[in-house]
Amino acid sequence: MRLSLLIPAALTPLALADPDYVPTANPSVLDAATNPILTADDALEWILGDPAMIPIPSCPTQMLANEVFHGIIQYKETDSLSNKWSRHGSAVPLPGAVRPNVVVEGDKVFLVYEQYKLTSLFKDSTMKMKTGTISDCEIAWDWGASTILEPTLDWEKDGSSRVGNPFLYKNAATGRYTLYYSAGSVHLDDSNIEEPLHLGSASSDNIEGPYVRDSEEPFVVAGSYDLDGATTIGMGSFKLVKGLSAADGTQQNEWALFNHITLDDATKHTGSTISLARSTDGGKTFSIADADLIAPPLKLDSGWKDTYVYGFDTIADPDDADYVKVFMNGRDGYAHASEAVGVSRLAKSKMK
């Protein structure tokens, strides 16, 4: 598998413009110098992951991220340029509530997330939706949640019965809602964890469902997303890039990020890399544009994202119109490792 190499800042004009960000192996991506920006701070927690952005007009941006035992936690941005955040309550205070995704419509917030089942010892999962109301930049979450998707197809039960990693958006052309999700699982021996195996999609005329699968077969990104010397063994999540517009020479529904789980042919170590995909038919199909957009170095003791970069979300960069921000969580090793949240800048010029 490819190793990420540090590029000297003197050779990277993009890095010279902002000392808060440093270059990466991909010239279109800059990493925040203060990464990771958030870590788990509750007792007995070693993971904080799957950031989901809540951009509320004329308000500080909010973020959701999940721990293992404390569910989905809410954060508020205090300084966008230096990527500072403060804890701001809880959205779903339940163990096994993970991988949130948020849609804001007017003063309503629709939170979609994956809920692991206690009855299966947190191996199987379903998709839940919870709503909230915005008032004076604060979110009042409603009580309870509804189930909007359960694993029913054979490939959704491959490894374990799971549907999760949601990304929900409204297609402006059709007026319908599309829900991308991951399903099933593959066991990663070196980390002793389960990661998603397949991708799927479902649609509805109503944001609260019911959602009907667009196909009985898995959703596939066309092209080769195997890295040099490694094979893709699982698919983590698939999400459209937010913060794009025709004025940028880009189009939101044309570009997406997804993370794929890999197995190194030589070392047999696993990894996870975030890739860039593009659609030329309005979002019906996607193909690879850059397989190793944001990749871990696969070198232990090198930082907060040694082995995996996966759960992610995007927003427009409020401090630089030439970029979108990619929030993600990274893992600093294999078994008994920790996970934290960091952020990168992705140049919009990459998506033209």
Throw out a few tags for this protein:
single chain; 352 residues; mainly beta; Tachylectin-2, Chain A; five-stranded antiparallel sheet; globular; Glyco_hydro_beta-prop_sf; signal
Walk me through the structure:
Keywords: Signal. The structure is a single chain. The protein has about 350 residues and is mainly beta. It has a single domain, classed as Glycosyl hydrolase domain, family 43 (Tachylectin-2, Chain A), CATH 2.115.10. Helices cover about 0% and strands about 45% of the residues. The chain has 1 helix and 24 strands. The strands form 6 sheets. It has a 5-stranded antiparallel β-sheet with strand order 1-2-24-23-22, with no helix packed on it. Strands 7, 8, 9, 10 and 11 form a 5-stranded antiparallel β-sheet that branches. The longest helix is centred in the N-terminal third of the chain and has 4 residues, at about 15. The radius of gyration is 19 Å and the shape is globular. It starts with 12 loop residues before the first helix and ends in a 5-residue tail after the last strand. Residues about 1-15 have low confidence and may be disordered.
